[in-house]
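W.,

You were right to be curious about this one. When I first looked at the sequence I had no strong expectations either way, so I just let the prediction run and decided to look at it fresh. Below is the sequence, 158 residues in total, followed by the output.
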Amino acid sequence: MKPVQAEASAPTLGSPRKKTIAAGPAPAVKKTAARPRKVKAVETSRVDEIQKLIVASLEDDKGVDVVTLDLTGKAMFCDRMIIASGLADRQITAMAQHLREKLRAAGQKRVQIEGLGGSDWVLIDAGDIVVHLFMPDARAMYGLEKMWGQDLDEAAAG
């Protein structure tokens, strides 16, 4: 009698992990040059429009030392960063809530706020623009203007 051989196409029993181990390593794939990522182009005029709305809202709510940083090409998470201070946590909360209302009225679909309700730092994510609202002491401690401002440009150039 001849010995019976198992067919090559017979299913392997066991868990998916065992099947993967039994199958062995995947064949080597030839690596090609990475394709450049397609980034959704955002009209600069729309970003400028939203920036003006944000700055006007913060100034209307008596925001102190409003600073805008252009991060185009420097950061992947936003094109602009706006930093402002408030003198009390209630003022910062009111600034954030007014800003959310104005952005939604302007057609901004998703406006997310972190840190509302009595904190020293409130972050507002308005898509291509990120807004930081600080108490003066917290703003000095974190130093975002130094981190993302002109010092960043000098470090990249040097």
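Here's what jumped out at me. Helices lie at 16-23, 44-60, 89-105, 136-142, 144-148, 150-157. And, maybe more interesting for your project: The mean pLDDT is 79.

Coffee later to discuss?

I.
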